[in-house]
Amino acid sequence: MSEATERYAAALFGTVNGDARIVREAADALMADARLWNTLQSPAVTAAEKKELIAGAACLDGRDELKAFLTLLAEEDHLAALPQVMAEFSRLALAAEGGVNCLVTCAREPDEATREAIRKAVCKLRGASNAVLQIKIDPSLLGGFVLDVDGVTYDRSVKGRLNRLAKGIQDGPADADLDKLANQMKQSLQGNSGDAMATETGRVMEIGDGIATVSGLRRAVYGELVEFENGTPGIILDLRRKRTGVVLLGSQEGLAEGSIVRRTGRPADVPVGDGLIGRTVDALARPIDGLGPIECTETRPIEHEAPGVISREPVNQPMQTGILAIDAMVPIGRGQRELIIGDRQTGKTSIAIDAILNQKGQDMICIYVGIGQKASTIARLRETLKKHGAMDYSIIVSATAGESAPMQYIAPYTGAAIGEYFMSKGRDVLIVYDDLSKHAVAYRTLSLLLRRSPGREAYPGDVFYLHSRLLERACRLTKEYGGGSMTALPIVETQAGDVSAYIPTNVISITDGQIYLESNLFFAGQRPAVNVGLSVSRVGGSAQTRAIKKTAGTLRIDLSRYRELEVFTQFSSDLDAETRQTLDHGKRMMALLRQPLCQPQSVSRQSVSLYIATAGLLDDVPLEKVNSFAKDFADLLDREQPALMQEIDDTGSLSGAATEQIRTTLESYKEQVSATWKA
To answer: One of 21, 538, 580, 663 is an active-site residue; which one?
Structure first.
């Protein structure tokens, strides 16, 4: 029923003087006069002629308020809506008298005694003075009846009892006691299953594209989980005066206008627990890797309020990615939110994968949330993690491009709920959202289908809140609240390097810094293609090991000077010695920062490489040999001086004695390999 129809009915009811039943009878008599009614609805009859017919209709004598109302409908060309208006008018009149309308669905036509018994039961149940029954026959109920009254459904049908019995057996624990199971079956068959007998329900008004518009559900709340009659779950994302917008989290097969929707009374939640580690699940945390069911005893709501200021600790513990360019210049701490941003195919996901691989042996749970990615990409990523032994501490939440917009919408919240479970247990968690650009597009799709007003770039006005309430859940907790942490690495894709677009600027303002990957650097062979000028960490050195902080002190400045000089001197051949030295040093630093995929470096290897580079000890190494030389030298130290490397890893600092030892070893190593440079 449209809002216009409801307004018309309310306006007519407000003008009635006397018995509303007489007005309804007069309207019924008008519609029963087929010749007059068809003439009033005919488009060939003018509005003036319709007014004359209404004024002269014998069935409307003495009902001036109804004549005036019909004249208004004729002027607005809405006379065809009179049947719906009068139906709503009757409901208002019945409610004013303390009565109630109810729908009784039976397997066969009930006799008068049954009707009267139901009518009395409804009046007693709802405290009404009268109950008007609408009878509907549905043989599939097998027996009994289903009563819909005031938005609540009472299911006393044979079909309903069998369904509850089947659901109880399915949901029951596998090791349930036989006597307990038999008692449950007896209660289900007798209809004594408590709240399952009476549930608040609504009816589907229209459905399509994963969105259902539902009438009823007057007590529903935003974010509540509902269940459709085919078993498909849904989440309420739109609340209006007379209808509710629900997104389906599954198939809409078998659903049509009039299908029943039931409230569950609980928020949308997902199972959480240690059983998820090593598994690949969908957006509802259901296994999709073919490794059998997941045993989890707890659930958590996918939407949860972020921890408050009192429960948070400062971010000062490093979360090493194993990528030299990032750990040296854009350090990330445990509990931080660091954005990875760049154009398509610039290595954003590769950085996240290397960060996950580097957590091996670090007692950190890693969660990768794939949003809108190809299924082949997710499968390839899983194989990469499995190959390097990272699936032993990782969880993959997948909502591929082939899945519906609602599943892509809830996927990151599911990942956050799983991460919060481990964080509450005192564990450290790394979660990657790949990527939030596609997440925003999925939410825009849902919002437009829910008929919300579009704003900038057609996104709804609350798209900022969409990501802020997600990313604010990442933090480091105090020991009183569990002591765990959740580090978020959201990924955002830009178009032609435009970081000023709507979604990139939103996420930049929410996060604690960004790693900007530049296309030109990537295509020039600099990988990872980290732009030094636009990449920043707002946590900074407080989340950096002392060894790297000490050795990388001038790295960012050196690279910035190099990039600036490179632009101005690319067309010049006459350079002074100082400029040449700066350019030569910058080229060596850029070469040092090139790092192959899936080869994260330990703190000791990073510290050694940075020390020999920033101290100018690589200036006599040929440019094309810099990267391999630094790698081979770190390998040499791992083999011949493991105690030194272990000391750096354990203490996170580089002592004076260690630097002297590195210098001495480097000099002897150079003598060994310098002959190969000349050759």
So the answer is: 538
